[in-house]
Amino acid sequence: MKIGIDLDDVLADSLPHYLQAFNGRFGVEIQLADAAWRLADRFPQIPRQEADDFFSELITDGFFSSRSLIPHAKEAVETLADGGHDLYIITGRTPRDEQITMDWLARVGVRSHFEAVVHRTCDPVERHKADVASGLGLGLFIEDELAVALAVADTAIPVLLFDRPWNQGPLPDTVRRIESWPEALAQIAALNGNGAHP
Ligand SMILES: [Mg+2]
Description:
Elements: E1 2-5, E2 12-13, H1 15-26, H2 39-42, H3 48-60, E3 68-69, H4 73-82, E4 86-90, H5 98-108, E5 114-118, H6 125-136, E6 140-143, H7 146-153, E7 159-162, E8 175-178, H8 181-191
Parallel strand pairs: 1-4, 1-6, 4-5, 6-7, 7-8
Antiparallel strand pairs: 2-3
Bound molecules: magnesium ion.
Residues 6, 8-10, 144-145 line the site of magnesium ion.
């Protein structure tokens, strides 16, 4: 099966650390339930340019390079690749950060397991990911953002959604919440016919 996998907060532990840095920089106390990559869109009191500059500085200072893996992500990717699945990273990061992304994937030891790493070339991110997912003919998508999960599910591709404070809300039947990578593997085995190889 072709499986699309989000990068930040599915493979890399990112958004809570971005939120913490954002809160510190702008003197606000945004909670995890309100976390998002485009916080300035929701908080007009923070000038957009300042928020953009802050994000650029964060990346220059090594934010994406220093992320930790989400627990069990590496073993899960290895298991899926060994099981014959074709894996694609589909990220909202832009091509500007592609080298940082590829270096990080190599450093944590999972880069060779992916057929491709697709960065975002259009807005909004949910449109980009839904278009890529349907273009690739994916059989499954694994994500942490609610808007992306809903947009991908609209293309009739089932979604596993990592349960996080920032993605709460009602879901269609084709989107299933999961707590962890081991649970994702169990769901994929079930989708694939009780653990049979693809
Ligand atoms: Mg994400």
